[in-house]
Amino acid sequence: MSVLVLVLAVCAACCLGFGFVLQQNAAQRAPLGDFLSPRLLLDLVRVPRWLAGMGLMVAGLVLGALALGGGELTLVEPLLATNLLFALALSRIQTRQPLGRQGWAGLALLAGGVTAFILAGEPRGGSAVTDPLRHWLIVGVMLGLALLLTLCAARLRLTWGPTLLAVAAGLLYGVQDALTRVSGRRFSAGGFAELLTGWQPYAVVVLGVTGLVLVQSAFETAPLRRSLPALTAAQPLAGIACGVGFLGDRLHTDAGALAWQAGGLAAVVAGIVLLGLHPAMPQGTGESGRERALERS
Length: 297
Description:
- By secondary structure, this protein is mostly helical.
- The protein is built from twelve helices and no strands.
- The protein has helices spanning 3-27, 39-44, 48-70, 73-80, 83-95, 100-121, 132-155, 161-196, 200-221, 228-245, 255-276, 287-296.
- Helix 4 (73-80) runs antiparallel to helix 10 (228-245) and helix 7 (132-155) packs antiparallel against helix 8 (161-196).
- The longest helix has 36 residues, at 161-196.
């Protein structure tokens, strides 16, 4: 594993984690009528705290793209999932809550799970799958599931809506990471001329904006603990599926390695849930009042 890829991915996770906290701090005060509307971004762009969060998020995306340019998607995605550690660190400063058993257990599970998956799988590159049917099938399943979850979230926004939106955004971001990797390969092969003649970079932008609307809508309607864990868990799983499915990433497939990989991913998800539900995570202000307002809308 390249040390540069490791450093880039962890720095990207740091920027993303800090950015998510600042974005949620601002989004929870946005007008409720902007739920699942691009108008939400227009309202938030006037909030300095949200702009700071977006700046960190953009920095994280750039660093993540550089990491994807030098490492396999199946390697970078688990490292990006550690953004929740940095989100919790900033939230602890805001709420002054100690880590406690839950925090340390979540930290150990997340870090240990990422380590176990990488060491057991030893992600490495290979030849990308040239079958377009397989390519579009995997992407289509991810996008279709994201659409279904979004439709359900629109009907259940007082209960499971924020979580469903976060999962949908995570699926979109996982596909976006895969297409970022493809775009990087095109750029390496033929420069900007080769890059701009493909559909992938434009899809990256569309997926990014769509995912941003979903995430901010989730941040707007519920505390961070009801959205960020789902987002953080869904993105690497979708990215790994794309990496193995059509980007040609290879993992060890003997029984022992597969068991460690499955256990590692399960530990990652469990750690994400524990950290996301930690009392240090922002609970929002005036949540009950917002819920009453939503009920009337």
